[in-house]
Amino acid sequence: GNSVTQMEGPVTLSEEAFLTINCTYTATGYPSLFWYVQYPGEGLQLLLKATKADDKGSNKGFEATYRKETTSFHLEKGSVQVSDSAVYFCALSPRNAGNNRKLIWGLGTSLAVNP
Amino acid sequence: ETGVTQSPTHLIKTRGQQVTLRCSSQSGHNTVSWYQQALGQGPQFIFQYYREEENGRGNFPPRFSGLQFPNYSSELNVNALELDDSALYLCASRTGQGIGDTEAFFGQGTRLTVV
Q1: Alpha carbon of B48 to those of A17, A60, B17, B38, B45: distances in Å?
Q2: Is there a contact between A43 and B41 if contact means CB atoms under 8 Å apart?
Q3: CB-CB neighbors (< 8 A) of A41 in chain B
Q4: Which of A53, A102, A111, B69 is most buried, by the most CB atoms less than 10 A from its CB?
């Protein structure tokens, strides 16, 4: 079946530290992969996405590369800010007909950045 | 601000009751999806509506039902509420049917508590 596993939180970093949040997936075929972010008191927002192997999604200094060989889509940022404090969700959308209408989500990783 | 609004923001219901949650889609979006997010979990896909017809469903029982109206707003109805239905219910709207077509915009959710 299809599933997403992401590293457990909470993750606590100091400002300007390097961030990695691991995400691995299981899927039939080649899914589309996403990172969503949920800031305190707000709804989910798409952070970045990749739709095929070796694609790199990037936004707001965050990056993630679609690695088919390791079935991974790790989220990275070189220098985090206090404003990056949020919950981050990794998600996939299967390609096969009938399933490409839904997102399958990881459990979320809470990030707290201290000044 | 995504333009997707959900109401109410919070409500408390008694086991066995029925509840209706509402979602107003972003202007121009003809597809709406509903997700259930239990505490500490990732969202789980309930179903999706495209142009007033259900065109995708997750592993939820028939007592979870929905509607999409001509203006593309939507309702989620849950009958015979159970304690495990307590969760954050998220609505997402976009254009197109496939999850990879366009970005999905999420509302802030409705927090349902069943006692």
Answers
A1: 39, 30, 24, 19, 8
A2: no
A3: 108
A4: A102
DSSP 3-state of B83: helix
By CA distance, what is A48's nearest residue in B?
A: B103
For residue B29, CA distances in Å to A6, B15, B109 come to 30, 34, 18
Put simply, whether A105 touches B (Cβ < 8 Å) is yes
For residues A30 and A79, give the distance between their C-alpha atoms in angstroms, rounded to a whole number.
Answer: 31
Residue range B76-85: mean pLDDT, rounded: 98
The alpha carbon dihedral of A39, A45, A50, A51 has a sign of positive
φ, ψ at A93 (rounded to 5°): -125, 115
- Token pair of A5 as six digits: 């596993």
> Does residue A84 sit in helix, strand or coil?
helix
Measured in degrees and rounded to the nearest 5, phi and psi for residue A105 equal -115, 150
A93 contacts B2? CB cut-off 8 A:
no
Closest CA–CA distance from residue A7 to any residue of chain B (Å): 13
